[in-house]
């Protein structure tokens, strides 16, 4: 039974889509900023959405294996829609809120420092900023989804 996991093509197609989408963020970022950021490989957010790539690659692979009329494809398609909606909606907004909270914290610290009401402490801890790149813009979700669909199609049309 455990060896059958190694023959689960939809699982491997989805995992490959995640890895590919995460990796391709690095050259895309370099083209835009002329800076290499290897940390993008393990970070959330950015172009393309690896979440979208994974769920659409999974749904595409399931469509190839079970057909568009199968209940399993229906589950995969709905799962993909929910994940992509969440990535471009709730998670994106959470990132926007984090950016505003970070600015409010900086402004508050500046105010306290300027009023000299903040006690001076040796080795004062630097406040860690909240992560602002949590979700995706709609274009990032779209290109992540397109990446996943293409990976699924290429796998089933040319590799298998």
UniProtKB/TrEMBL annotation:
Pfam families: DUF212. InterPro entries: DUF212 (IPR003832). Keywords: Membrane, Transmembrane, Transmembrane helix. The gene is yuiD. Signal peptide: none annotated. The chain crosses the membrane at residues 12-31, 38-64, 70-87, 141-159. This is Membrane protein YuiD. It comes from Lysinibacillus piscis.
């Amino acid at each position: 039974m455990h060896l059958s996991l190694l023959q689960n093509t939809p699982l491997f197609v989805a995992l490959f889509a995640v890895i590919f989408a995460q990796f391709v963020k690095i050259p895309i970022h370099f083209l835009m900023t002329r800076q290499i950021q290897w940390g993008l490989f393990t970070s959330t957010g950015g172009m393309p959405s690896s979440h979208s790539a994974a769920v659409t690659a999974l749904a595409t692979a399931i469509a190839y294996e079970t057909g568009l009329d199968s209940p399993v494809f229906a589950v995969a398609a709905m799962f993909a829609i929910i994940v992509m909606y969440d990535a471009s909606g709730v998670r994106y907004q959470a990132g926007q809120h984090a950016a505003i909270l970070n600015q409010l914290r900086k402004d508050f610290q500046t105010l306290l420092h300027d009023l000299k009401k903040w006690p001076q402490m040796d080795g004062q801890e630097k406040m860690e900023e909240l992560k602002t790149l949590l979700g995706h813009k709609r274009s990032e979700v779209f290109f992540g989804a397109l990446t996943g669909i293409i990976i699924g199609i290429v796998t089933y049309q040319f590799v298998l």
